[in-house]
Amino acid sequence: MQIIESPHVYDAIVVGSGAGGGAAANVLANAGMKIAVVEAGAYFDPKDPATMTQMKWPWESPRRGASTNRAFGDFDMSWGDWEVPGEPYTKKDGTEFLWWRARMLGGRTNHWGRISLRFGPIDFKHKDVDGLGENWPISYDDIKPYYDKLDKQVGVFGTKEGRHNDPDGFFLPPPKPRLHELYYIKGARKANVDVIPSRLSILTKRINNDRGVCFYCRQCNRSCRVYADFSAGSCFIFPAMKSGGQIDLLTDCMVKSVTTNDEGKATGVSYINKKDRKEYQIKGRAIVLGASACSTARILLNSKSGQHPNGLGNSSDCVGRYLHDSTGASRGAFIPALMNRKMYNEDGVGGMHVYSPWWLDNSKLDFPRGYHIEVWGGLSMPSYGFGFNVTEMNELVGETVGGYGDKLRDDVKRFFGATLGIAGRGEAIARYENRCTIDPHVVDQWGIPVLKFDYKWSEYERNQARHMQDTFEEIIHEMGGVALGDKPGPDSDYGLAAPGQIIHEVGTTRMGNDPATSVTNSMCQLHDADNVFVVDGGPFASQADKNCTWTIMALSMRTSEYIVEEFKKKNI
């Protein structure tokens, strides 16, 4: 195949336009650097009427919004999910790993839950507490200034609580709890589980003239047409372009590898243009990989050369290793006191208004790391189905089951808003043997070798899921509810979600001071090629009992400012 080369040399090439790539593009472009952003998916703007799904009625979808080609429903704003046509991945026997890919400008940030939590001081040095995994080579104090910048630039609501390992930030006013959340607060506190206002990157107050304020339609997963919630395109890339940033957007371009010279230094990237299916190469002085933890690992492993025979950055054999995702388990509940509710608009933001941060001491438990609890429910816009089994509900309250017509309609109205869901999201231990590698026998439709996953949960994660289920039942009981369905047991790993299913995968290019046991240094710079940087979740030495996105972006901003300084010093 003929490779089409461009003679132009960019200051930096940013691969990926999601949380990490978007943050990097914003910092680098605002510093005056000429950059290319190479995105595997299509161009997307949340306010474009041609692709907008926000504020559409259920009947504007073939199945009232239920999934026909999107995992979270047809209105969900993610083009791509755990399966992307023509882009397979494989698994070692016994592995259930699920790999989410969003093929669009802004990536996963267009549909995520906007849960924006800082990691705490303990999260960066957890090995000192329980002896497991590795400490980060940086501390909370190193990243705090970038959390602060992120809070002010992007906006996050919440309250100052003074919790040591759940650090406070610069918060916008939080929305008030909805009725189902008031019941959750009551039950959780009776069960001695802490509850505080959520911390979500959604604007409840205007912070600039480019973005609107949340109008409480509860549809953040559809990406906001007034830019009131955080998405990388609307909050990072578009503002940088508007203010004069020199950004070339290359969409529908699937990066194949990083190119290197005879000295092993990166010179650019090679990609397949999906529209004409031809291979192109562009040149850059710095390469910034923000394609997602697994996609970046794939690019590096496919970037083989005489100087990097095992893949770029892989002299330690650690690229792809230490892969880990958040744990997840959930339970549904029926709250009889919420039956026969008056119907009114209580949409709120597209996510939880309150949540439970980790509240216990793991040294007294049989698992080493904690989890937080999320809650959902209320009177959201009805869509496909009821969201509950009317017959089961009638059985629980001793009423006549069955029926159709007026009887069915009356039952649906009686029970609508009386169900509630609770979910735990916790920290798994980063393990050497959990990894992704290149499958030597399979390529995608673009001819690029695909990833093969090898991942198993340990007893630590199973014990954590068991604790989640016990906690859920206690909270449901204390709020006067009834847990729905059978309680998950050991035969189903206590309801523990498959690895990758929570879509928080990190750790494949983990940072460390020792090049023999890590891929990047404390500035997310490859040990093996000092003009290549990783700004997605790959450099994480460990996860936390928090969602990873806010930390991905803070790290990306820190790394990007470092790149700017290195350019000024002519080190790149």
Structure description:
- With 572 residues, the protein is an alpha/beta fold.
- It contains ten helices and 16 strands.
- α1 packs parallel to α5.
- The protein starts with a strand and ends with a helix.
- The model has no long low-confidence stretch (mean pLDDT 96).
Number of helices: 10
Task: Please give the number of β-strands.
Answer: 16
Largest sheet: 7 strands, mixed
Order of helices and strands: EHEEHHHEHEEEEHEEEHHEEEHEEH
Ends apart, CA distance between termini: 32 Å
Q: How much strand?
A: 15-25%
Secondary structure class reads: alpha/beta
Query: What is the helical fraction, as a range of percent?
Result: 10-25%
Integer-rounded radius of gyration? 24 Å
SSE layout and pairings?
Blueprint: E1 3-15, H1 19-30, E2 35-38, E3 90-91, H2 127-130, H3 140-154, H4 179-190, E4 196-197, H5 232-242, E5 247-250, E6 253-260, E7 266-273, E8 278-289, H6 293-301, E9 327-334, E10 354-355, E11 371-377, H7 390-396, H8 406-415, E12 419-426, E13 435-443, E14 449-454, H9 459-478, E15 482-483, E16 532-534, H10 549-568
Parallel strand pairs: 1-2, 1-8, 2-5, 3-14, 8-16
Antiparallel strand pairs: 4-10, 6-7, 7-8, 9-12, 9-15, 11-12, 13-14
Helix pairs in contact: 1-5, 1-10, 3-10, 4-9
